[in-house]
Amino acid sequence: MNTSEQRIKIALQKSGRLSEESLDLLTRCGLKFTQSKDQLFCYGENMPIDLLFVRDDDIPGLVSDDVCDLGLVGLNVLEENRLGASKAGKLAAYDQLRALNFGQCRLSLAAPEDFDFQGPQSLQNLCIATSYVAILEDYLQQENIKADIVYFSGAVEIAPRLGKADLICDLVSTGSTLAANQLREVETVLESEAVIIQTSAETSDDKQCWIDRLMQRLDGVLQVRESKYVMLHAPRGALDDIVALLPGSESPTVIPLDRNGDKVAVHAVCRENVFWETLENLKGAGASSLLVVPVEKMLA
Ligand code: PRT
Ligand code: ZN
Predict the structure, then answer these.
(1) pTM, whole model, 2 decimals?
(2) How far is the CA of 87 from the centre of ligand 2 (A)?
(3) Cα(247) to centroid of ligand 2, in Å?
(4) Ligand sitting nearest the alpha carbon of 154
(5) Full strand arrangement of the beta sheet holding 167-172
(6) Share of the chain above pLDDT 90, in %
(7) Ligand 1 site residues, Cβ closer than 6 angstroms
(8) Structural domains in the chain?
(9) Coil vs helix vs strand at 206
(10) Nearest ligand to the C-alpha of residue 77?
(11) Mean pLDDT within 143-166
């Protein structure tokens, strides 16, 4: 497992909105790198896994062409690549392994505030500015709408003010960019978040073993992020109500606290965050001595 062909290469965004969290996720999976983020390449010290830092738009192609085995990229970039390739008669050769629960945004249509949007039909014969031509074309085709698309590589939100388009189709997260440009989100075209993809090219058994191991750790890391360990005391009679209130928990451990088992301790892993309201409701149902602690690692 030492030659460079046998080492796994993961493509990550070099510098941008996904960079920090992508690297953080892999570090949490226990990977150690000889790291210098300004370099294009990072050597994995404790596993045969190296990182390649590139522009996000290049990630689907690098994975599809089997230059990299894995890639972390926004679903929006992936879909644009897949639909673009299919239009050119090519097949994008990668499989989506997991959604990564960061980089959330949506590709949305947005119009000037006074635009009377009554659904996709309102787009008929209008002009829409976007960086996501293939996704927008696909959407318009599915809705049976004829509209002109004008390509903007960035600052799409200024297109209506420049008189270049009637609407835009762009990524939105908080919505503040749209508001600052007197635009209103009218329709979501695609919900997006960061995902991890693997090349569809044949992978050696050795490499696949490491990829499976990495995915198992990744599942643990993703589950742990929101998970909490909850401990509480309760009268046995209130157990059903209390268990029903624990968010996303599976069969908690119940330990008798007195000789006849009327009072019990309940320990549960909750796979969702536990808010103050939940604790108050648990207390209302008869629970006492409530304790919520973060979970460090989890292996199913
Ligand atoms: O240099 P490189 O090509 O690698 O980076 P890039 O400039 O193309 O991408 P980058 O770093 O801006 O974004 C990388 C990925 O982050 C995107 O492909 C999305 O998957 C994800 N992401 C999440 C976002 C946003 N949220 C986001 N808000 N990408 C862009 N935006 C922009 C959007 O285009 C608009 O200009 O932020 C603005 C809107 O934000 P709000 O909060 O005002 O709504
Ligand atoms: Zn980009």
Answers:
(1) 0.88
(2) 20
(3) 37
(4) 1
(5) 148-151, 127-130, 167-172, 105-112, 183-192
(6) 87
(7) 13, 16-18, 55-57, 74, 76-77, 103, 105, 170-177, 192
(8) 8-103+194-223 (3.40.190.10), 105-192 (3.40.190.10), 228-294 (3.30.70.120)
(9) helix
(10) 1
(11) 97
